Amino acid sequence: MTDTATTTDARVNLLGLTRSELEAFASSIGEKPFRARQLMKWLYKRSVADFGQMTDLAKDFRARLGTVAEVRVPEVLLRQASADGTRKWLLSMDGSGNASQAIEMVYIPEPGRGTLCISSQIGCAMDCSFCSTAQQGFNRNLSVADIVGQVWLANRELGNADQFAGATADRVITNVVFMGMGEPLANYRSIVPAAEILMDDLGFDISRRRVTVSTSGLVPQMRKLAEETNCALAVSLHAPNDALRDELVPINRKHRIAELLEACWYYVERQNARGITFEYVMLDGVNDKPEHAYELVELLRGKPGKMNLIPFNTFPGTQYKRSTPAAIERFRDILNSHGVIATTRRTRGDDIDAACGQLVGRVRDRTTVRLGSKVMSVSVQP
Ligand code: SAH
Predict the structure, then answer these.
(1) What's 253's domain CATH number?
(2) Is residue 382 included in any domain, yes or no?
(3) Is-above-0.85 flag for pTM?
(4) From 31, 70, 104, 279, active-site residue
């Protein structure tokens, strides 16, 4: 049990506890460990936060829980919905409603699946030159409860599965990706238990191939992760050579591409995983030329990895521009025709900005929020 899972009044936030920690917690207040499993069912299968509603628990246990424990989730500051079904939330993590302590969470429904993109830190210290989170600097690591609380909250917010094309019969969220704000592997201590709760069949019960940690390339932690958990791994590559990657992803000055790729192949071998997903942001004239694609072919041909090309999302003050659709297509074709599987990530939810732009002057309470890689123009929901 970590101290970050507790509140100022020392009540334990149950969302921060893994199954074994919850069993230890139950024992510590004189209950049998199986009570922990009952609790998990209420917490995760039924999204219930109020101990009073947990009707198969003894009354005095419920009363005791009320004094020593709580289910505390992030506070929603703003909600945004796109015509394509994408949803975004601005969440306050300290209960103060303070936007400088806020993070973003995004839900993307697609045919056959629903992906929730969560944050692992408030801000980020990695300083990637094309990422707007870098400009705001690092604020703090999120706790296990902060991370699990995002998924819990999304389940509650999204409600019943019927309304989502991407959802399966009994669940709205089929995939969780650590691709919001922050560098998950710089918050290793929290993301490992959080991933465990996401994958636990008494927790969110998400399949191990559908929980993805994305990293800018913290090599020692990647190797540790290979030993300690079994989720999927995505790596932000963004450049095919060290000179260019040093500029775009500064952690490369510490861990070179060769070392990074070795850790990737180790991960695949150790995990018996299908492969690594490499993210590659497409920056006009910077990393999107045919020679870059050929360099990538040299690095990745025959290896268990696939390329995910991400059209750059612009933000105020950036020096970069999004590659043209023709450049992205040419780049993808070179990779695909030389034995490196590559797909282009579809930009989702961008119509929200457009819609907001059109509403200028008509919506009174408007705020521009810059978070993660996205620039959101949002209207405050009552
Ligand atoms: N720190 C983690 C998670 C970051 S967000 C990581 O680096 O992998 C997920 C992806 O969005 C990363 O690949 C990140 O490099 C990318 N990204 C950041 N800023 C972006 C931007 N402005 N446009 C498009 N993708 C961006």
Answers:
(1) 3.20.20.70
(2) no
(3) yes
(4) 104
